[in-house]
Amino acid sequence: MASIALQDVSKNYGKVAALADVTLQVDDGELMVLLGPSGAGKSTLLRLIAGLESPSAGEVFIGDQMVNDVAPKDRNLAIVFQSYALYPHLSVGENLAFGLRMHKAPRAEIEQRVRRIAGMLDLDQHLGRRPSALTGGEQQRVALGRALVRDPVAYLFDEPLANLDAQLRNEMRLELVKLHRSLGRTMVYATHDQVAAMTLGERICMMRKGRVEQVGMPLELYRNPVNVFVAGALAHPAMNLVPCHVMTADGTKREDGALFIETGHVRLRVPTPYTPAYRTYNAQEAIFGLRPEDVHAEPSDPGWQAIDVEVVALETRGAETVLIAAIPGLAGFDFAARLGRHYRAPIGSMQRLYLDLAEMHLFDPRTTMAVPRDI
Length: 375
Ligand code: ADP
Hints:
- It is elongated, with a radius of gyration of 25 Å.
- The strands form 4 sheets. Strands 6-7-8-3-9-10 form a 6-stranded mixed β-sheet, sandwiched between helices.
- Helix 2 packs parallel to helix 4 (136-148).
- The chain is α+β, with helices and mostly antiparallel strands.
- It folds into 2 domains: 4-226, 3-Layer(aba) Sandwich (Rossmann fold); 240-363, CATH 2.40.50.140.
- The protein contains 9 helices and 20 strands.
- The chain starts with a strand and ends in a 12-residue tail after the last strand.
- A hairpin with a 4-residue loop joins strand 16 (305-316) and strand 17 (321-326).
- The longest helix is centred in the middle third of the chain and has 18 residues, at 166-183.
- Bound molecules: adenosine-5'-diphosphate.
- Adenosine-5'-diphosphate binds at residues 13, 16, 18, 36, 38-44.
């Protein structure tokens, strides 16, 4: 087993900076998810760890060893890519055993490991079959198994489930969590799928344009996103992010008293615990953030603040209804609320909603960074 670390790593392809100054520590035995849109640099980061590319600057460590000059085959890592190729003329069992045979592992050991992994991945009954006789999902499991059957210090996954249909993807995700638990190995898993990241990751490394935006446990990123990008990326529907004006009751630059935010024609009172932190933005523009799950149809808590909005659309999702609303006086921004599955309202009507502003966020519109609340 081994930790993996990158220290000030950059990777340039000509003028393209695929990675810029990335520092990241993956602990021994940890499952770290690299999350980010296409082009964020996730694959490049995995390829640098694997040694398939060398960094333009910086250092890569596996355990205590700096591995910049260590060949890929000597790093003892297993990699699973999105596009996998099984040997069509070999059986499933032979496909699983292939890497071990190449490394000249003893026959009995090969057999034992293949059986164990085949059992874990529910492939026992397919060991004698050719890949062409398997479904896409089973083939993907064989590809996973081929990596898992080895005994590397760490596993790297590059969107390994992207080609599967939704149900199988959910099943395999659960399998991977179990595998991680039973193998206890360091795993780095790259994906653009935020649901996968939230459910799989012990920690998430959120990336964009070759840079690390935030690293933390899934709920840490969900509750305390450091900037607008992370706030908008981690849930669906994402956090509502609307422009606002921060002000005192009389619109002055007073240093005390209540603080408000105004968005469109709506004025909301900033919860008292947050006023010291947010007062630095008094008389300035900011971005107001509130998750759709913190917007309610009923005033169940006396602290929630009422606003009247216009119903733009209702998405019936079965377990819940998502209301897409327009805030009066605020054109061009949707405001979403995750409401009960029985919620109904006519499109175009005005409806009252209740905001739990204890969960609010404020962002600086120039830097897009969150304004820390705990001053
Ligand atoms: P991700 O895996 O997050 O989609 P990648 O690591 O594949 O991102 O790519 C990061 C950036 O580096 C992209 O802009 C991509 O076009 C560029 N890039 C990746 N590999 C190469 C390459 N071999 N040659 C040139 N540019 C590349």
